[in-house]
Design goal:
The chain is mainly α and 138 residues long. 66% of the residues lie in helices and 6% in strands. It has a two-stranded antiparallel sheet with strand order 1-2. A hairpin with a 2-residue loop joins strand 1 and strand 2. The longest helix has 23 residues. It is globular and about 45 Å long.
């Protein structure tokens, strides 16, 4: 079966929704907890996901390797103190901004067409699903 780019984008949308589903019923105490010094709290994970969305968007727009550390730091500085519900909305919004851009600029392309991801030309059929990797490993 031939997969269309718009179907790949929808798959990424579903991946993020599944990731965020894990927040339902999570207490604020658990949301803020950092279980181990090397682990992120749920709050820090959401900030990181916003940084990822922004990094992908910047990289695709500029064809350059984004400065992940700076983008993550900017997201944390801008949004780190938001109340939980506002942060959850911010992560949904940042993801939708990315997916809307991808759909508008690449939705009519084929999976074999190239997109600049992480500074390298990458087939859309590889690049778009890769974006969801941040959702499923967190």
């Amino acid at each position: 079966m031939f997969m269309e780019v718009s179907q790949l984008i929808e798959g990424v949308r579903k991946s993020r929704a599944f990731c965020l589903k894990h927040l339902v019923g999570m207490t604020d105490e658990v949301f803020e907890a950092q279980p181990h010094p090397e682990c992120k709290s749920a709050r820090k994970t959401l900030l990181h996901l916003i940084g990822v969305d922004r990094s992908v968007l910047e990289g695709v727009k500029t064809s350059a390797m984004p400065d992940f550390v700076a983008i993550d730091a900017a997201a944390e500085a801008e949004l780190g103190e938001l109340p939980r519900t506002a942060l959850e909305e911010a992560v949904r919004s940042s993801h939708e901004e990315l997916l809307t851009y991808l759909q508008a600029n690449y939705g009519d392309r084929t999976p074999d067409d190239l997109i600049p991801l992480w500074g390298e030309p990458t087939p859309l059929g590889v690049a778009i699903p890769y974006v969801s990797s941040e959702d499923y490993y967190h």
